[in-house]
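Entry 14. Ran structure prediction on the chain below.
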Amino acid sequence: MKIKTLFLVLLTLLCVGSLNAQKVSKRITITGTVLDASKSPITNAIVMIDGNRTSSVTDSNGKYKITVKRDAKTIGIFTFGSGIKEEEINGREEIDFNFGAYSVNQKPDQETKPGDEAVNVGYSHIKKSGVTNEAANIDGTDKKYGSYTSIYEMIRRKDASIRISGESIIIQDSKDFFGQVPALLVVDGVYVNSISSIPPAAVESITILKGTSAAIYGSRGYGGAIVIKTKIKNN
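Output, structure tokens:
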């Protein structure tokens, strides 16, 4: 009788263990290392699953670890400075990311149909249909801007959702884990830290890219982008 009871207890434990194993098997743990173009580890890169940001970030060695549902399709890495990369999971439990350098080429759109004008995004032009979110445009040649005292006033008057903080421009109250994220500033195809020295009279056009419209800049455009073209011609 004791042997029978012991057998039943063992059988029950095995069944419970099997059920637990089945539950665990519904999720997988993925690990990996994230390196920049110089093969140095990237710290605080954000791990994304199926396009959604998670609370998982890389450590000081560029390593990450995240548990996901087995049916998850893609894993991506969002970095500040190197861009965004995405990989198919396909059941893999170790996925490394290596960010290479990328070049910036200025090449205008070749074919633009009426009603689908090109939008200046700093180092290239794309059609409005290729911009996923609203892109606000300011025509600097419009005489009404001649009376404005600063370029910040031009931008703020165009879009009430924009806030000026010192020399930073905050679009739609953009934030990340560390606080507010200012918009990327691009002047004549060059990244700059400030636009305060540009007088309104020198502006040919301004394009305000919000949200994923600025994704063309990778992680640099996390807080949106202010793309400015001046009337100053380089020789």
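The chain has two domains: 2-98, 118-230. Will compare against last week's run tomorrow.
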